[in-house]
């Protein structure tokens, strides 16, 4: 989907050192200087990760109407159903619900060149790099599995003028707007997702140690899009080798092995839940890493971004539901 070939330094997975995560987290927080409050600085969109075709929870929307109105809605669309629930503010409401089709999702990472961290030294080899954060957050399921909590849906809607493009509330549209990538009509389409790589926008971020309810501290990350980089603020140059893309079915036949190795646990767990994970190139690559084969892969030496080819078969009608929701 995101054809990106990158230069990367590959290391054997054999003889990995024992990592002192407390010291590593402390290092990141100290360098970021955000223990007590967030910062707002320019960030570079560094990576796009294909999470595959994911099942979605049923859509829920507050509904105002009597029993006759509900019956009419069900008659028009038999898959619709109603239940009691709560709105976003916690107020009790009646909810109109309906099944959603599976949708291809992506995760996007941002690098901050103003914050250089050296996580590599905690793994036995110094490697200063910009702080990298995921825009999509993480969530722990009841079985303690970490997954991506707010992935971006690759789903276009039909706008009033007949144009098929992302909804204005889709996170990818918001990123494109902040990077001045919208077309003349103010739209952003799925075929242009790859253009986000290497673009710069303003982000608010914070990494800090959060006190636990039962004692102890937990390393916590928060990041959100602010918008355009303010006038007068320097735009950082893109450091060599930070851009990457990961696809379930890469057109080139393989993903950059270093990018696959560096995938966050939440991203890997989410990818494994994809409906099209079985038989994918990425599955074989992830399993090769988890198997600890120790084989050294040779990374390509050229950086190239090719057109995006999302796997969703066709755009869907706008259901009025916010795309930026956990699945």
Summarize the topology.
Elements (H helix, E strand, L loop, with lengths): L3 E2 L15 H12 L6 E16 L4 E5 L3 H10 L4 E6 L5 E7 L4 E15 L11 E6 L3 E3 L5 E3 L3 E2 L2 E3 L5 E3 L4 H8 L21 E12 L5 E11 L16 E3 L10 H5 L3 H8 L8 H10 L13 E2 L22
Parallel strand pairs: 2-15
Antiparallel strand pairs: 1-16, 2-6, 2-13, 3-5, 4-5, 6-7, 6-10, 8-9, 11-12, 13-14
Detailed description of the structure:
The chain has about 325 residues and is an alpha+beta fold. It contains 6 helices and 16 strands. The chain has helices at about 20-30, 65-75, 170-180, 255-260, 265-270, 280-290, and strands at about 5, 40-55, 60-65, 80-85, 90-100, 105-115, 130-135, 140, 145-150, 150-155, 155-160, 165, 200-210, 215-225, 245, 305. The strands form 5 sheets. Strands 2, 6, 7, 10, 13, 14 and 15 form a 7-stranded mixed sheet that branches. The longest helix has 12 residues, at about 20-30. The radius of gyration is 21 Å and the shape is globular.
User: Main beta sheet, described?
Assistant: 7 strands, mixed
The secondary-structure class comes to alpha+beta
Terminal Cα span: 21 Å
What's the rounded overall pLDDT mean? 87
User: What's the quaternary structure here?
Assistant: single chain
Q: How many discrete structural domains?
A: 2
Shape: globular
Secondary-structure element order, N to C: EHEEHEEEEEEEEEHEEEHHHE
In helices, the fraction of residues equals: 10-25%
Nearest-angstrom radius of gyration?
21 Å
The percentage of residues in β strands lies in: 25-35%
Query: Number of DSSP strands?
Result: 16
Number of helices, counting only DSSP H or I runs of 4 residues or more? 6
Query: Poorly predicted ranges (pLDDT <50, ≥5 residues)?
Result: 5-14, 292-309, 311-327
